[in-house]
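FYI - complex with adenosine-5'-[phenylalaninyl-phosphate], inputs then prediction.
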Amino acid sequence: MTPLTGVDGLVDDAAERVAACMSDEALRSAAAELLGKRSLLAGAHRSLGTLEPDDRRAAGRQLHEARSRIEHLVADRHQELARRARQRMLHDDRLDLTEVRPGPSRGRLHVVQRTRDELEDVFVGMGFVVEEGPEVETDWYNFEALNIPPAHPARGMWDTFYLDLGDPETILLRTHTSPVQIRVMEAQPPPIYAVMPGRCYRRDTPDARHIPIFHQIEGLVVDRHVTFAHLAGTIETFTTAYFGPNIHSRLRPAYFPFTEPSAEFEVTCTICQGSGCRTCSQTGWIELGGCGMVDPAVLRAVGLDADTWSGFAFGFGIDRCAQMRHQIPDMRILLENDLRYLRQI
Ligand code: FA5
């Protein structure tokens, strides 16, 4: 067998062998077997010396061609394997946003916070500014400056959490937002048109309409010639703006040490629209809060001349508003934070 016979077969075998290589490593060892020192090709090259000079030249050219074809086969296969590897990498690394599985649902504000924001919006729209005060208060701001001296029987209206700080029963968790009235009057001269929302604390036994941690929004107007009619008009304007045109307000005589005269204000029951139901004890009305003309003793406590200035104040429950607006039968649910319920309101 001369070196010329079988050279084509050598290239065909090499093509099959190279095509079967699935990795760079397999290709490298195939290339060594096909082109290396111990390859058939190298053996054929070595035997060229046994041929006649003319045959040797022709056979040499043939072997050279065969080697170069096999080298091309290997180089092409190498490129093909690199292309496939890149494609595999692109596939594995791709980020298809449509495939991202939804995580936990987006958060939302608690219904009490939303109610507070909505109430602030209504009052800002009526020309009030929003003020805030501390939740930890002194006895002076929460009671005394509001015309409730120590041992005054009206203190029983607010069952108080005291803190173990300073002299006994001097530092407390505010029981209402009314102390912010005092802070606002101390901080700025009249005229004052402010609302003061915030958290309050009372040792109240929880029930369907009471929780120990709740929220109020306080309102305070101090100006010249302010009358009870301004108070009633403000309450009615707020009621229809917040609850809608079919819901109205009414005032009933009440007692608060810091307002004189004082009233409780009630709004049409939103559950029965005023026709009477179990929630409103068949009256058609629901109590939202208290209000009245600022007592001259309170104006004097902050150094204002009660002959020049007059004002009105009101304070009502934000949680109670949320309860009415969303027809929540039991207020305690607002503290339980059961997402299955909160997501519905
Ligand atoms: C007061 O707290 C007075 N400071 C209101 C006031 C302000 C009167 C300014 C005059 C001038 P009262 O204790 O009635 O008043 O509470 C007012 C409202 O707060 C109640 O009508 C109710 O809506 C809400 N509230 C009171 N206690 C709770 C409670 N434990 N849980 C939920 N809401 C409450």
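The chain has a mean pLDDT of 91. Residues 157, 176, 178, 202, 204, 210-211, 214, 216, 218, 256, 259, 262, 287-292, 313-317, 319-320 surround adenosine-5'-[phenylalaninyl-phosphate] (CB under 6 Å).
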